Amino acid sequence: MPAKIAYTTPWIIMLSQLAYYSKIYGPQVLLQLNIAYYLPSIPILLLLGHIEKILDEQFGSTASMAIRLTVGLTGCAAISALYPFIPGRLSYLLWLVVALGSISAVAFSTSYQLVAWFRSADTIALGIGCVASGPLALIIQLALHIGTTPKRWQWIGLFEAAAGLVLVGLLAAWSLLWQYWNILCGKEEYVDSSTPLLDSAEQAAADHVDDEAGEAALMLSRMLTMQDPFQGFPFTTMPGRGDFGDAESLGAVYWEVFKYCWSTVLAALVSSTLLNCIFPFFTYVESSGMLGEFLPQVLFYTRMLSDILGRLLPRKKALAITSPAALLALSGALLLCSVAFFVYLQVPPRMQYDPYVMVLVLALWLGGGYINTMGYILAPALVPPKHCTKASALMVIAYKASHILGLAIAIGLALWLYGDISGAL
Fold this sequence. Notes:
Blueprint: H1 2-15, H2 18-25, H3 29-38, H4 41-59, H5 61-82, H6 90-115, H7 120-143, H8 152-184, H9 200-207, H10 215-224, H11 250-278, H12 295-312, H13 324-346, H14 354-381, H15 388-418
Helix pairs in contact: 1-5, 1-6, 1-7, 1-8, 3-6, 3-15, 4-5, 4-6, 5-6, 5-8, 6-15, 7-12, 7-14, 11-13, 11-14, 11-15, 12-14, 13-14, 14-15
């Protein structure tokens, strides 16, 4: 979680100033920033697959993760510290955001590979860390008394504070790695005394599920009751869910992994695509007069807080969906909410009311945060244990691809509805 907060903080801090950017560069700037941040991350993630293999062979998988995490977080801190001093032209801003998106992709990928070794609760914590930087950004802005038009000293203080938080997160991540280094390397056995999510009777029932008919249920039951954070790998291979034979290429392995967890990956892809399509339109929403120029920022923090709540819901066993099909159906419900959002953008001013759009944003990101977190929990549990990191990697790729798809759809909609996305460029 500290690593996730660390590398997302500079980006969240930038986005939190969307009302200010909109006044200077126009409402299309939020779409431009998202394009600059997310487009470069896909080739970076693909390249990391080759670099990771080299580093793993040279230093070992644990040291490799430590190196990549350090490079990613150090780069995020440096960019955040530099940001207040760049010239005010939009082109300079966008190029710096390109650099931030690229280096953040390194930390993003590594953090989810690392958490694949841990409990489902740690996956939830990592997901919460993704949006927990939102409240931190709000606290910093309140402490500096920043409005919709920040002063020079406030601007510098805002981003230097973000750089400091990144460095704190780096130290916290290194502390965690140091604490569990020998366990991650397989030299020691981890013993955890925490209370499992299922009681002993439920666990006993789960352990007697028929091997053939209840194979997936047994895997999910064990996933939900993990006390040992490193138990994702030592599971005994289930009947019919062992190695993928003699797969000759990495692509073949990923394809086999995808066939086990495709519906979970698709649910995450659909929900994240919808949210990434909608977010750039926050600066296009006209206020009914209740919130005025603060409406984009209010929508932004409504988005962040509802996302956190959605990611917390799976902590309750009764609220944890263990059916990939149900998760996919929930993503379909988000599609209907997304249609309602774009209908609201086109209604006459007399029908607009700020709380209406706030409720839509709350529902969208509540569901999206839930689907995203459950996807990262379910996908590794649906594949043979030795390939659970491959399932996590597929989720990472789906998450990043959703930004590209969402932004592509957003560009098309912006051109259709407003006729321009270039603005001050």
